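Kindly inspect what follows.
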Amino acid sequence: MDLSLVTSTFDTLRFAPPSKLTLLEAQEFSSAHYPPTPPDMDTLILGVDSRELAAQVKTVLQAIYPDEHEVFIVDGGKKKEERLGMLGSGDFSSSTCLYVPSLGEGTSFESFAEIVAHLRAPDGCPWDKEQTHKTLRKHLLEESYETLSAMDEDDKPGMREEFGDLLLQIILNAQIASETGDFSMTEVIKHIYDKIVRRHPHVFGDLELDGVDGVLQNWEKLKEKERKENGGGEKEKGILDGVSSTLPALTQAQEYQDRAARVGFDWPEIEGVLDKIREEIEEIKQALNLEQVTDELGDLFFVLVNLARWRKVDAESALREANIKFKNRFAYVEKGAKTQGRNLSDMTLEEMDVLWNEAKRLGT
């Protein structure tokens, strides 16, 4: 790396190099899919020697930086201020550098981990310092459901906020583990990094697979191998043992069925699923007591989840969307009754159905 080029670049920019600066070669930078630089630090990219390379660098930067972010092109003692979205025009040479100012404080993963650690420090927050994995469990669950709710409603600002709240729970739990010497956030990241690479040999290796089905079948083979390797002297875990017992029932059922299907335990055609649904409905009709009805309804729910799986539908999301739809339409019925100056309990089912069908026609 030519340090004289770095010095001349800042001479041209007419300010001293910042105390925190990331230096990278353009060729290396352009091969990434996500900027390998903390956005709360200034970045200097060297050797942007062509429009094509500048366009590649811009694409990588756009994963984090907005199009209106100001950047500086420096070459031959001259500088040009440019919006990131417009980068790529003009002349470039081997001495062309791109200076990317930071996005400001609090925009990197590291800075977020720092403030969470500060919350747990002696001069931090009394509430945060008292928390443990167990006390945070309910908050993790609540944030997960709030995130799902925002996703179900396709609420983009809500998702942005809820993903942040969920991330806080992860970082806070990792910080607690770091303090007790159990594991660090770096180990968490390294573990999932290695797992992703290991389970995607068709992306990071030379294995060739046939479509999504091939990927899922190979995925299950890799996990089966991991289970054997990690079994040690204990009882070897089965394919379904890795599914959390705390998952919502529909999600758990679909995950069980997905994993079983990956090793060939599945109907060859969807007609088998439909026949099973008809069979379960008949068994419900013939049930003689509550215990039998409960058992047969459970079987029906399970096979309905299988139908959802065959149709590439997430059963949990489908039911949540149906719940939301029911809630909105029933609210319309309540509002209609109130407009008429009546109580719902005083209306007939036929009268409520009229309002319900109005809500359906309006797309509520």
